[in-house]
Every structure is written in C-alpha cells, then in structure tokens.
Amino acid sequence: MAQEVMLTEEQEARMNQHIKVYFEELGLSEDKKQIFKKIMSTKDKVFIFDTTMRDGEQSPGASMSVEEKIQISRVFDEMGIDIIEAGFPISSPGDFEAVSAISKGLKIKKRY
Question: Which of 29, 69, 81, 109 could form a disulfide with 76 if both were Cys (CB 3.0 to 4.6 A apart)?
C-alpha cells in the first residue's frame, strides 16, 4: 500500500524551483511542461528518473556510443523506467544524435 509523503512548504518550494530550472534546461514547450507537471503531480506513484546515460559520461574516461545509448534505453524502457535522461543534446553532435534516436525509437507509454 502506498504511503503519502507530505512535504513542508519549503521542500515543495525547492522542488518546484528544481523543476522550473530543469524545464529551462530542457527547453520544453509550454504544452510539454503542462504534461510533465500533470504526470509528476500523481501522488500515488514513485517515478523512476534515470540519469545513467547523461551523468555516467561525466566520469573521467567514460563514454558511450549512440548505439550503446540506444541499447541501454531499450532495456530501461522494458524495465519500466519512467523518465530516461539520455544526454545533454546541446553539448555535442553525438549527444544530439543519441537523444534524437532514442526519442524516436521508444514508444511513449502511459504508466501513470
């Protein structure tokens, strides 16, 4: 049985600020921001937000090819990961290509 977690006003304000900054970094359209907010406001579900492909490449000497990122994203999709942060598209042509390929290859599933 799910247990509702109550946030203090300060925690909720900090969370909203993080979401706002994240939206700005992603460059989401207003439509997509509203969809994302609706999904994330579901209180009876824990969302799994994976940053392996983006943060993993921040480690010295670590890198993944476009094909490796596509393979990982397929496994994450099969596992039911809700949000996959596949890279930072503006950082390099390779990241742009990987994020584009992943976003085109995965099916959007309603899991909430």
Answer: 81
